[in-house]
Write a structure and sequence with these properties.
Elements (H helix, E strand, L loop, with lengths): L16 H4 L31 H33 L60 E2 L12 H5 L5 H13 L4 E8 L5 E8 L3 H11 L15 E3 L13 E7 L6 E10 L2 E10 L4 H15 L1
Antiparallel strand pairs: 1-2, 2-3, 3-7, 4-5, 5-6, 6-7
């Protein structure tokens, strides 16, 4: 026994006869049927083994509790397995409503020609996109109906089809002249309509350098409102609710939404400046264009141009 341990036995003085090794008187004999505690002064009460009948009762109770615990464990395990095997929406109290995001296919950047850098690489001073521009347009989400009118010829859209997005005749003429003066190379586009009636159009305009595209962006998309109103819009203002956390590095983004009161449809639009490409993303829907799928479309298109 170490120094830290204690005992309940009475301490024996160092100078007592017992300590000195003097023999102690023998304890008197214990009569039959009399416990030792009754005849030995100072002895500890040590409980003897319980009667056999009590042992059997304890054993039966223990077995019953063990069986009950085993049953509960089996039931609990089966319930846990059942819940983990279910979809979240199948579990009462855990169903999560959709926030309106669309189901897009896996987004994969097209391959670059050999020895060509990405648009924002340090060696790519002009910010050129060397991948096929037609492969940089965001694909349509699942179950959407594609707008074949935006396929163009061999995937290239005529300039007048882009200009048709703008409402004013004079604006279309002025914008068309700007595109010609800036040396527009070509336009790739895609459009679709989802089951809720949202109509999406994406246009990618490519120029000879990022400087040209960025200069045109400053003319078309000042902060407060777009320079040229789109067809079907009344008043478009900067979309202050568009999350700034979704910005893609290297992509300049200017987003607008049609404020109330609007006509039969609400229109949302975004201009993206990405190197030598200027993108226009438009979504419209009767009764109101939802914010979530619009943000999703803009961000995914930005990532493809990165």
């Amino acid at each position: 026994m170490t120094e830290q341990q204690t005992t309940d036995h009475p301490a024996v003085p160092e100078n007592s006869p017992s300590a000195a090794g003097t023999p102690q008187p023998a304890a008197p004999p214990v009569p039959e049927g009399t416990s030792a505690e009754a005849v030995v002064p100072g002895a500890f009460a040590v409980a003897g083994p319980p009667p056999a009948k009590k042992d059997r009762r304890v054993l039966r109770a223990t077995l019953r509790w063990t069986a009950a615990v085993a049953v509960f464990a089996a039931v609990g395990a089966s319930m846990a397995f059942g819940i983990t095997g279910m979809d979240r929406t199948d579990v009462p109290g855990l169903a999560t409503e959709s926030d309106g995001r669309w189901d897009f296919p896996e987004i994969v950047r097209p391959p670059l020609p050999s020895d060509r850098p990405r648009p924002f690489a340090e060696a790519n001073v002009a910010g050129s996109h060397y991948a096929d521009l037609r492969a940089l347009v965001l694909p349509a989400p699942a179950a959407a109906r594609e707008d074949k009118a935006l396929h163009g010829k061999d995937g290239w859209l005529p300039t007048e089809d882009l200009l048709a997005e703008y409402s004013d005749t004079q604006d279309r003429k002025e914008f068309g002249q700007r595109l010609s003066d800036d040396g527009l190379r070509h336009i790739a586009a895609r459009g679709w309509t989802t089951q809720d009636g949202t109509h999406t159009r994406i246009y990618l305009l490519q120029f000879d350098s990022g400087a040209v595209a960025d200069e045109l962006r400053t003319q078309l998309a000042p902060y407060s409102e777009p320079e040229y109103p789109l067809r079907g819009t009344e008043t478009s203002v900067a979309d202050e609710d568009f999350s700034t956390a979704t910005r893609v590095v290297g992509i300049e983004r200017f987003v607008y939404t049609e404020s109330k009161p609007y006509g039969a449809e609400q229109v949302r639009q975004a201009y993206l400046a990405a190197g030598d490409v200027l993108a226009l993303v438009v979504q419209s829907r009767k009764g109101g264009a939802n914010a979530v799928p619009f943000q999703q479309t803009v961000v995914l298109q930005s990532e493809l141009l990165d």
